[in-house]
Amino acid sequence: MTHLIATFFYVGHLRPAPGTWGSLAALPAAWVIYVLTGPWGLVCGILASYGLGVWATGVETRGKDNHDPSEIVIDEVAGQWIALLPVAFGAAANGVSITALWPGWIVAFVLFRLFDITKWGPVGWADRMHGPTGVMLDDVIAGVFAAVGVAGLAALAHMT
């Protein structure tokens, strides 16, 4: 069960770039959650993925030298969903389909991957924590940075 969660239904075993595959797999999952439950359901999904991710990562890495194996991508799922929050709440607030805001999906994906890969500032700090909390937290921070970028770029796009 922990391997299923940590690898997000084995997506983490795809090569190359399992983190990018995990982020891509998070997109249709976010759409399903949003359609079924709305933006607050996505928030609940983020909280659940974080909690389950810390637990599953702890079990999967216990006693191993590598604290952040590449096949663990539940952290990318949580971070990618955070990056999508401005899109989800924007669609709900304006009564439009979340897929109508497709540029926001692309920006959320690109910015999240950028912050996750570069490990800029606090993202790198969290990554160096070692342990399940660090594995999850760096992607949460990258997701928050990406969400701020998505909201800022959306504001700029709608002002013009």
TrEMBL record:
The record lists the catalysed reaction(s) as: a 1,2-diacyl-sn-glycero-3-phospho-(1'-sn-glycero-3'-phosphate) + H2O = a 1,2-diacyl-sn-glycero-3-phospho-(1'-sn-glycerol) + phosphate
One short Pfam name that applies is: PgpA
Membrane topology reported for the UniProt record: Multi-pass membrane protein
Instruction: Report keywords, A-Z.
Output: Cell inner membrane, Cell membrane, Hydrolase, Lipid degradation, Lipid metabolism, Magnesium, Membrane, Metal-binding, Phospholipid degradation, Phospholipid metabolism, Transmembrane, Transmembrane helix
Q: Which residues cross the membrane?
A: 31-52, 98-115, 136-157
The coenzyme or cofactor needed here is: Mg(2+)
| Principal place of residence | membrane
Q: What class of enzyme is it?
A: hydrolase
Q: Does the keyword Secreted apply?
A: no
Pathway terms, separated by semicolons? Phospholipid metabolism; phosphatidylglycerol biosynthesis; phosphatidylglycerol from CDP-diacylglycerol: step 2/2
- Report the protein name in the record: Phosphatidylglycerophosphatase A
Q: Which organism is it from?
A: Yoonia phaeophyticola
